[in-house]
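User: Before I run my own analysis I want an independent prediction to cross-check against. Here's the chain; please return only the structure tokens and, at the end, one sentence I can use as a sanity check.
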Amino acid sequence: MAKKILILCGSPRVKGNTNTVVEWVAESATAAGAAVKTVNVAPLKFAANGCICCMGCQKSDRYECVIKDAAQPILASMPDFNAVVFATPIYFFGPSAQLKLVLDRMYSLYKFKDGEESFGCAIRNVTLGLIATAADGPEGGLAATEDMFRAIASFNGGGFTSLLVPHAPRDPKQLVDNQAVRQQAMDFGRQLAAE
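Assistant: Structure tokens:
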């Protein structure tokens, strides 16, 4: 059975470094037999700027955000995938604000009960992935962002994988000719399809 992969791209630059790497990863995973859905979350319109802590998701029996907007169907679909990959440029030591809007609302995919240590998780068996590009080196923002996503995956009890692209050029056209990064992206796509 083909692996189902959801890639959520949070880059506001349509032809930027992050989207270029995402295209390579998606192409490779598809060629390896996976069913890949890519959603550019940056231009989506949201009714709220992230989670508003209304606790509506915790009062419901369903694992869904109660805010009706473009993020709601994306969040509700996450448990249907084998892997959910978050793609982001590094902006000021972390993921883009556009991606963080969706990420914070993932709280709706958990059920917490007062006084209990255990919790329900709709994406417990979903591998989380990270694609991150940065102008600086592998330390700093890339490392901090990878640590954050690794912590989320650990909290879920599921797997984690990442593709980090340090020293990405300021002009994204230069990345297109970088065969080493392209090969890393293709390998990452095949890895996602195989997991």
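Sanity check: The chain has a mean pLDDT of 93.
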